[in-house]
Amino acid sequence: MGRGGAGGTPANEQTGEGEAAAPPAPLSMGGIEAIRFGADGLVPAVVQDRRTREVLMVGFMNRDMLAKTLETGEAWFWSRSRQEPWHKGATSGNYIRVREVRRNCEDNSLLLLTDPVGPVCHTGAQTCYYRTLDGQTLRPLPAAELGAGVGGEGDLTWLFEILRQPARREDSYVARLLTGGVDRIGKKIGEEAAEVIIAAKNRSPEELSWEMADLWFHSLVLLLDGGLTPADVYRVLSQRHREKTSHP
Ligand SMILES: [Zn+2]
Description:
Layout: H1 10-15, E1 43-49, E2 55-61, H2 63-72, E3 76-79, E4 84-87, E5 96-103, E6 110-116, H3 142-145, H4 157-163, H5 166-169, H6 173-201, H7 205-225, H8 230-246
The structure holds zinc ion.
């Protein structure tokens, strides 16, 4: 799956490449009254890169900072140490463009889906969470860990989400596979794996991508059957990569 291929898939819409430089659009104020600010008037705001899905930082917002963020499309926090508004990026130039704001189930925290203009952390790291709990610096830094694939074309989560929609499962091909369980899905995976090998032997890029798509598709169905998600697999891959690179 090459970059820019298969236009119009949900994954491509989510990556929004080329939009990062676009001026921020005002966001709706709807729902701001529902937020239950704490006794100190603040709620935590988790900042996520909407393209890589990486968690970048956590800040705190009061009602005014949330309103300002929605108005300007750039992240404004309340600085607890300085007890004053903090327009992220005002001194560093590393603004955070906010594309969507979500609230959690209890209306007491926020999630910001963002396009960061530069590194978010004052250390120059892409994310503030570049260390393990015991203080080891993650190398490569988390943003590079899985490449741009996460949340983009290389991330299979969007397809998985479609596969597990209940409506889709009534009397569909996926439903029949799931009814057949591991035996049926496993048989397909065996067949598709053989076809992938043949395609590779034939040195045919079209055939190989076609057959690999079949193999990945059925692998996702097997994950679904097993109660897993692609995230479980990404976690294993990421962990292996980290182990390899943290012991040079
Ligand atoms: Zn930081």
